[in-house]
Specification:
about 250 residues, Spore Coat Polysaccharide Biosynthesis Protein SpsA, Chain A, two-stranded antiparallel sheet
Length: about 250
Amino acid sequence: MRKLPISLTLYTTTKGHFGCKTNYQHTVKSLSNQISIKEFGSATAHIKISEGEMEGGLEMSEFLSKAGLNILSTEKNWNREGNNHAEGYFQDMMVMMNSESVHKNEFILFLEDDWIINTDKLDFWLSEGVKCLKKNKDILCVRINDEINKDVSRATSINKYIYTQDSDYTIYGPTLTFQPTLMRTRDWYAAVRHINKDWEKVKNQHCELISGYYMHSLFSNSPTPFAFFDPEKINATHIGTEKFAKENL
C-alpha cells in the first residue's frame, strides 16, 4: 500500500463536548470510511485525561488503538476559564510534536476529535495539498473549511483545487484555524515550541490567532500564506456542539 507522507495527529479528551463523550468515535469512524488509517505515514492520538476519568481514558485508548492509531496521553485537569484550556492544549501539542513517529513524515494532518471531513476522495485531496505545499514554500497550510464557510469572495484561487485567504478574509486578516488542516511537520513543531516558550507573553490572545502569527512570522514572506481546499468539493462538519450532544447522548 502506498503511504502518504503525512502523519495523522488527532487530539481528544475524556471530557468530550457538552456531555457527549463519543465524538472521537464518530470522527475516527468517518475518517476510516474515507481512507484507511494505514495510508498515513503514521497516525497518533493524544488523549487529555481529566482527574477521575482514567477508566474513560483507557476505553478511548483501546478504541483508538484498534483503529490503528498510536496513543499518547496527558493527565491534567482543565477548564475554559482564563485561557487554562489553551495553555494545556499547546502543552498537549508539544507532547504530540515531540513524538518521533510524527516526524517520520514531512507533513501532518491536524485533526481535532469533533470534525467530520466530507468528501469521497480524501486521499486525492490530501495528495493535492501536499503538492501545493511542496511547490510553494510560502504557503503554510491547506485547510478543510467548515461546511458553513463556503464563501470564496475574499479568496484567490491558486489552482482548480485550492484558494488562499485574501488580506481581508477575516476581520483579523488571513490566519490559521484548528479546523482539519494540512501543514509541514517542522513548521508546526517550531511554532508550537515558540508558543509554549513565549506563553506568558501571548496567553491573553486567542489560540488560533497566536498560531497564525507564529507560523507566518517564522516561515512565510507572503502576506497571504494560509490556503484552503475548494469548500464546495471538500469541507468539514463540526460535531462538538450542544445540538450534536443532545442527539447522541
